[in-house]
Specification:
Rossmann fold; globular; 8 strands; alpha/beta
C-alpha cells in the first residue's frame, strides 16, 4: 500500500534537486510499479486499445459505464437528471445540508471519445462530497462522431444555462479531468474571448493540455504510466480534431490550451500523478499560468496514475481533501 503520510512531492525541493526538463520523479522506474498500478495497467490495456473503430469504442464506453457503477460513492448522494437543450445532464447533490449558493460545473474525461453520465458520476459525487456544492455534469458530444468543436460548443451551452438560471459566474467553479481538464480550460478561454466574467476557480485533474504531445514526460514516463500510451493519446487527438482540412494544428490554443493566452483566467488547482505521460502537460500549464500572472497551485502525487482521484485509495482521498480546502479558500 502506498505511503499515505507523504502523498505529494515538495515541488520546490524536487525542482532544486532535479532538472526540470527530464521531468522525472525520485524512485520511480518501470521495475518498481506498485501492484495496484500493474493491475490497472493490465485492465486498461484490454479496454483502451487505441482504436477508434465503432466496435472498439463501444467496448471502451461500456467499460467506463461499468467502472462508474462499481466505484461511484453513493452514500449521502442523490442525482437528478435533466436535459439542457439536447445535452443530457445531471445534478449530483448531497442529501444533507450543503452549500446551495455555489455550483461545480464538472467536465468528464475520456479522451473526447468516451464518457457518459454514469462514468462522470464517480468524480461528480466526490466533488459534491468534498466541496459541499451542487455539481452539474453533462454528456457532451463525443468524437469521432462529433469532432471539435462539438464538445466546446456543448460546454458553452451548459455554461449559458447556468447563467440563464441566475447563477453568477463567480458562483461557479469549473472542474475537469483529463480531456475534461482540456475542456474546462477551453471553456474559460472561450468565455474570456467573449468578454464575459470568468468562473470563480478551476480544478484540473491530470489535464490534457498539449495535443502536440511535445512534453518530456511522454518519453520519461513511458514505461511508468499504467494507464496511458502514446498510441492511445494519438488516436484520441486524431478523432477529436477530425479530418477537416481547415482543422487547427496541434499547437493551436483551441486544441492545446497550454499554448494560449492564459491571462485573466481564475485561480487554478492542478493535480497530477508522478507516473503519468501527461505529467508535463500539468507542469508546463502551471509554469505558463504563473508566468502570465494567474494564481495556480500544482500538486504532484508520488507513484500515482492518470486521474487516480477516481479510485478508492488513500492518495485519492487526500487529493480530494485538498480540492475541498482549495474550494473553501476560493469561496
Amino acid at each position: 500500500m502506498p505511503d499515505i503520510k507523504r502523498p505529494r512531492l515538495n515541488l520546490k525541493r524536487y525542482r532544486a534537486a532535479h532538472p526540470y526538463a527530464p521531468s522525472r520523479v525520485p524512485g520511480a522506474d518501470a521495475d518498481a510499479l506498485t501492484p495496484m498500478m500493474k493491475a490497472i495497467k493490465a485492465v486498461h490495456s484490454v479496454t483502451s486499445t487505441g482504436s477508434t473503430q465503432p466496435e472498439d469504442l463501444e467496448r471502451q464506453r461500456s467499460a467506463q459505464e461499468l467502472f462508474g457503477r462499481l466505484v461511484t460513492p453513493n452514500r449521502l448522494i442523490n442525482t437528478t437528471p435533466l436535459t439542457i437543450g439536447t445535452i443530457p445532464a445531471e445534478w449530483v447533490r448531497m442529501n444533507q445540508g450543503h452549500d446551495r449558493r455555489h455550483v461545480v460545473l464538472y467536465c468528464h474525461g475520456g479522451g473526447y471519445t468516451c464518457g457518459q453520465l454514469g462514468y462522470a458520476r464517480v468524480l461528480a459525487s466526490k466533488l459534491a462530497l468534498t466541496t459541499g456544492c451542487d455539481v452539474l455534469s453533462f454528456e457532451y458530444r463525443l468524437a469521432p462522431e462529433h469532432p471539435y468543436p462539438a464538445a466546446v460548443e456543448d460546454a458553452q451551452r451548459v455554461w449559458d444555462y447556468l447563467m440563464f438560471m441566475g447563477i453568477g459566474a463567480h458562483d461557479v467553479i469549473v472542474a475537469g479531468d483529463s480531456a475534461g481538464g482540456n475542456l474546462a480550460l477551453e471553456l474559460a478561454l472561450t468565455i474570456k474571448q467573449q468578454g464575459r466574467h470568468q468562473p470563480r476557480a478551476l480544478i484540473l485533474m491530470s489535464p490534457w493540455t498539449d495535443l502536440s504531445m511535445s512534453g518530456p514526460s511522454m518519453e520519461s514516463c513511458r514505461e511508468l504510466d499504467p494507464m496511458l500510451t502514446e498510441t492511445y493519446i494519438d488516436s484520441c487527438r486524431i478523432a477529436y480534431r477530425g479530418i477537416d482540412p481547415n482543422s487547427p494544428d496541434w499547437t493551436d490554443p483551441r486544441l492545446s490550451p497550454l499554448f494560449g493566452d492564459l491571462r485573466g483566467l481564475p485561480p487554478t488547482l492542478i493535480q497530477v500523478g508522478s507516473n503519468e505521460i501527461l505529467k508535463s502537460d500539468a507542469e508546463r500549464l502551471y509554469e505558463s499560468m504563473r508566468a502570465q500572472g494567474v494564481y495556480a497551485s500544482l500538486e504532484i502525487y508520488a507513484e500515482c496514475w492518470h486521474v487516480f482521484q477516481q479510485m478508492p485509495t488513500p492518495h485519492a482521498a487526500q487529493a480530494m481533501d485538498s480540492v475541498g480546502r482549495f474550494v473553501q479558500r476560493m469561496l
